[in-house]
Amino acid sequence: MNGPEIVFHIGSFPISETVRNTWIVMLALTLFSYFGTRNLQRVPSKLQIVVEGIVGAINNLVKQNMGEKYANFAPFIGTVFLMFMISNLMGLLGFRAPTADLNTTVAMALVTFVLIHTNGIRSKGIGGWVKGFLEPLPALLPLNIIGELATPVSLSFRLFGNIAGGSIIMMLLYQVLRWLSVSVFGLPFGLFQIGIPAVLHIYFDLFAGVLQAFIFIMLTMVFVASAE
Amino acid sequence: MEAISGKALVLACSAVGAGVAMIAGVGAGIGQGYAAGKGAEAVGRQPEAQADIIRTMLLGAAVAESTGIYGLVVALILLFANPLINLL
């Protein structure tokens, strides 16, 4: 298990696997949005039903968890969810998932961190926001600051650890199956690599991937809404 | 017995440390099991609220998992991006 490889350079700027795969995700989502919303009809087509379902589900989720006041957060939350979900599912296509790189998850967790505190300042004012760090005792200020900084760390490490751990386990499984088929049974190629890993792919890529993306947006919503 | 080089000792101890770090998985396992048990109890009490209970349970389990994930991240750092080798 190595870090993301450098695939090519633009000028002297290295472009890693993570950036390339993130571009693929962006392209897929952009095309899906473009073709899904190109000609909206009163009687929806099949694709339009899918798009409407996604948008409606995310709108309802945001309203349930944050209240009507924060309904304008729905586009951001939905974008983060779709991006992370597609990123986590890229392991199924043989790509290295962009979220198996700590840079991606830390960047998104920092966006959440900034959102939490801008929202806190906007609703309480600078004075109230600073006073929030002095509760319940002024002596606990360092602990409060550490606790606030722990939020982006835990958010980013949770996503990264789950996806990276899953891809490491899958890689080890593929190597073991290859060794079994080539060295033990003397087959010319890794025959056992066909089919057997699919069961674990269902758990590590499908279930854990969708669940972790969902956890990320749920925690983002809860933290932002409770920053008042 | 030939002398052990400093680099080999650091690598060996890092491998042991990575294994020790993964003991953190015990706590995550206990926490997730507890969450799942309470979730099963709640579904038994109120079968009609099953969807909500499962969603809450998965959220709680994923949050409980983060301590185990911290251990995993430490182990991964020790194995694949060892910072101690450069100190020699």
Automatic annotation (TrEMBL), chain A:
It is a multi-pass membrane protein. InterPro entries: ATP_syn_F0_a_bact/chloroplast, ATP_synth_F0_asu, ATP_synth_F0_asu_AS, F0_ATP_A_sf. Keywords: ATP synthesis, Cell membrane, CF(0), Hydrogen ion transport, Ion transport, Membrane, Transmembrane, Transmembrane helix, Transport. The chain crosses the membrane at residues 73-96, 102-121, 159-177, 184-204, 210-227. It holds the Pfam family ATP-synt_A. GO terms for biological process: proton motive force-driven plasma membrane ATP synthesis. It is found in: Cell membrane; Membrane. GO terms for molecular function: proton-transporting ATP synthase activity, rotational mechanism. GO terms for cellular component: plasma membrane; proton-transporting ATP synthase complex. Belongs to the ATPase A chain family. PANTHER family: ATP SYNTHASE SUBUNIT A, CHLOROPLASTIC. Key component of the proton channel; it plays a direct role in the translocation of protons across the membrane. This is ATP synthase subunit a. It comes from Peptoclostridium acidaminophilum DSM 3953. The lineage of its organism: Bacteria, Bacillati, Bacillota, Clostridia, Peptostreptococcales. The gene is atpB.
UniProtKB/TrEMBL annotation, chain B:
SUPFAM superfamilies: F1F0 ATP synthase subunit C. Signal peptide: none annotated. Residues 16-78 form the V-ATPase proteolipid subunit C-like domain. The keyword Transmembrane helix applies. The chain crosses the membrane at residues 59-81. The record marks 65 as: Reversibly protonated during proton transport. InterPro entries: ATP_synth_csu_bac/chlpt (IPR005953), ATP_synth_F0_csu (IPR000454), ATP_synth_F0_csu_DDCD_BS (IPR020537), ATPase_proteolipid_c-like_dom (IPR002379), F/V-ATP_Csub_sf (IPR035921). It comes from the Bacteria. The keyword Acyltransferase does not apply. Its main location: membrane. It is found in: Cell membrane; Membrane. GO terms for molecular function: lipid binding; proton-transporting ATP synthase activity, rotational mechanism. CDD domains: ATP-synt_Fo_c_NaATPase. Belongs to the ATPase C chain family. This is ATP synthase subunit c. It comes from Peptoclostridium acidaminophilum DSM 3953.
